Amino acid sequence: VTDRSLQRSMATSRAALAAIILALLPSAGAFYLPGVAPRKYVQGEQLMVKANTLTSNLTPLQFDYYNIPFCEPKNGERALPENLGEVLAGERTETSAYQFHTNVSRLCKTACRRSWTPRQVDEYRDFAAAHFRANMRLDNLPGAELVVYRDQSGHEFVSYRLGYSLAEPSDKNASNFYVNNHLRFTIRYHDVQTKGTRLQEIEEPGALIVGFEVKAMSIDHQFEGKWNDACVKKNTCELFTCDPNTGPEPTAPKLVLKTHQKMDVVFTYDVLWVHSDVKWASRWDVYLQMQWQDDEIHWFSIVNSSVILLFLSGMVAMIMLRILRKDLYRYNQLDQSEEAREEAREETGWKLVYGDVFRPPKGASLLAVFIGSGVQVLGMSCCTISFAVLGFLSPSNRGSLLLVMILFFVFMGFPAGYVSAIFCKMFKGAGTDRLKNTLLTATLFPGVVFLIFFGLNLMIWGDQGTGAVPFGTLVALLLFWFALSLPLVFLGSFLGFRRDTIEPPVRTNAIPRQIPEQIWYMRSVPSVLMGGVLPFGVVFVELFFILSSIWQHRFYYFFGFLTLVFCILLLICAEISLVLCYLQLCAEDYKWWWRSFFVGGATAWYMLAYGAYHYVARAHHAISLVSSVIYFGYLGMICYAFFVMTGAVGFLTCFVFLKKIYGSVKID
């Protein structure tokens, strides 16, 4: 699969029906392993440089590249999104005015001369003051410049700044800002004829692009006489500050941004082709191996999580092998006297509530719906992480992660409806309202997420950000849900209600048993809060990197570490829910249904609190109220999904555990 064939296969309209097709078809072309789809360029071939959105590490908002009056190409067209995920991620691709030709280096080439109105000057000042950067890509590779930290502790590759100031970042005096109007593009290529190349499918000579660097400079260009736009086409513009043979003059003055004034800006650029020994399959390494994502930190988190897991596993083993086994043995002794058996029953509280432990809880139908939704999110997460860790979600396929998540969530509607129907039938028996249960399973979780997303989309649209999803795409999502997700939920629910009802291992008493007064730490709220501490200790390190990646528009590609953390998280959620459920029953409190779900999902509340702390500590320079609302809106959706997923894990673990131990008790 080549990028050109991928673009052809994805070239559909943005109407509602076309967006559905985009959601279904691009999975065949969007999944390719990094390094198996090279694009070869022959000598002198023209290259298309694409311009993406403007982003800043101070706000999650993205803006269109041409919100800034940059040079625009003649007959420039907006490139169609490659998949639905790219649209939802706010990616917008434009054709830029910068023209390259394979293996042809040029210096001081003029792109255009633009006259900015006072309003455009002020808007540029605002973007530059907010640290916005322009994102460009060539051959699907992001254009970036090397930034070395002031303390020399490391470096990273980031897109180039629109402008800069020599004063403090908080000082928005326009006289301190300089316009970056000269770009130096360094294109690193790998010759396919170089010894050691294993790309057998490429027979003709050519070049593979393995690096794309962009360095921005500020130059107040000077020219003689009256400006003539015809010189741009002929490449005959003579600038005193930029020589086509030697490049920009080192002593050239910088272009100062003049506030509230009309100003003319000449945009120029250099193109340098440099041979590199980097293989095509390794060209993304400089972007993914960031200094701020140190492997040692991830390994420390894995070791820390493993210690917590071993500690909990030891507690579970002690409960299962020593306490429960001993209790069951003594309880099931048939040759004991009735007095001895009654004494054995009184020793351990969990056996005293056998007649009430499977009594249906209040809000049983809603609990069944949440369990089904949790299974749906869990299945989506497992499948998505599996695809990512196997390398199918290459970062060069923008939006593929979101697209895959949506597809898997839709297909997991079948097990969601099935599980929800099973528990609803067990709770309610023959009097179950099947239609109500099925509709709630299909709409409650995705409906809440969609309403939050729709509200945030309105705010982004009002702020003129490119992250606003077009109305046609929203309609397409609804049609996609009605056409595929809803029928799958109904199919799973139909099969779930057809199967035999799960029978409790013990008979439920007609009269509920009175629950004794509980110690303060065994009450609902303290138990739930305690249950979320250890799972949060497992995920908070990865959560920090994920939030930083989202807020600062960086790549997150540590899916191997994420898989290990995810597996440990599920085990710890299951074990902590089991331990606390056992302790609750020992205290003769049989209302475990909802509490087990909340104990498993308690980690989401800690995630929400940590997200707020991250906002205050690292993202407190948000430039608008809209940015803050968007941050907490997306954080809330993530925590909501996390809550139903881990809650379902905790509940199902407790259910299987109790069904097993009470099924082992012999009751007269």
Automatic annotation (TrEMBL):
Membrane topology listed for this record: Multi-pass membrane protein
Keywords in alphabetical order: Membrane, Signal, Transmembrane, Transmembrane helix
Protein localization: Membrane
A GO cellular-component term linked to this record: cytoplasm
Signal peptide: 1-30
InterPro entries (UniProt xref): EMP70 (IPR004240)
Chief localisation class: membrane
GO biological process, one term: protein localization to membrane
Regions crossing the membrane: 299-321, 366-393, 399-427, 439-462, 474-497, 528-551, 557-585, 597-617, 629-658
Family from the record: Belongs to the nonaspanin (TM9SF) (TC 9.A.2) family.
Protein name, entry field: Transmembrane 9 superfamily member
Organism field: Hemiselmis tepida
